[in-house]
Amino acid sequence: GTLLSIILYISSKNFIRDDTEATIGDKLNSFDETLVHAASETAFVTFWVVMAYLIFEFGMILSGISEADLSDQGSGIGAVLIAGAVGLVPGCGPQIIAISAYVEGLISFPALVANAISQDGDALFPLLVRHKVASIWATFHTTLPAILVGLMFFWAMGEYPRLTEILRP
Q: Closest Cα partner for 153 from 80, 97, 73?
C-alpha cells in the first residue's frame, strides 16, 4: 500500500499545487472523481510521512547518532530545536511520542513546550486537502514561534532552578 501511494503521488499532476474551486466542485458531483481525489490525498499524506521517516533515519545513520545519544541530550538546546521541528509532521502521533518521552525523562520541559506549540495535529489534514501550499506556510508559522518559546523556557529554567524542580515530571 505504501509503495502504491508513493507511485500514485509521484505520478500525479498535482505535485504540490492546490485544487481550484472548479475542480473541487467536479469532485463533489462525481463518485469516480471523489474516489480518485481521496486516493491522491491519501497518497500525499503517506508520501510525506514516509519522507519524514526516511530523512530522520538516514540523518541518524549519516550523523552516527544513536537513540541513547538523543536521550542523553534531551535537555539541551538541540532537543528544543528538534522537538520544534518534529512539530512539522502532521497528525497527533508526534505529540503523543513527545509527551511519552517527557514523562519518561527523555526530553526536557522546554522541548515539550516547543513541540506542543509547533504541533498542528490532525487539524492540518483538511487544509492539506484544500490548500497544500497554505498548509505548509501555516506549519512553518507555528514552528518558528514554538522554537522561540521553547528557547525562552530553556533560558528561564537555567536562570531559575526552582522552576526546573516545579516542572519536573
A: 80
User: Grid coordinates representing 166?
Assistant: 516545579
Count of alpha carbons within 13 Å of 120, Cβ hemisphere only? 20
What pTM value is reported for the model? 0.60
Q: Which residues contact 47 (CB under 8 A, 6 or more apart)?
A: 5, 6, 9, 10
Ramachandran region of residue 18, left (φ > 0), alpha (ψ -120 to 50) or beta?
A: beta
- As averages over each run of 10 residues, the pLDDT of the chain (169 residues) reads 80 62 64 78 80 78 74 76 86 81 85 90 75 82 92 87 73
| Cα–Cα distance, 40 to 43 (Å, whole number) | 5
Rg (CA), the chain: 19
The DSSP secondary structure of 74-124, one letter per residue, reads TTSHHHHHHHHHHTTS-BSHHHHHHHHHHHTTSS-HHHHHHHHHH--BTTH
Alpha carbons within 13 A on the beta-carbon side of 52: 16
Contact 110, 123 (CB under 8 A): no
C-alpha distance from residue 56 to each of 40, 50, 69, 125 (Å):
24, 10, 14, 22
The confidence score (pLDDT) of residue 150 equals 93
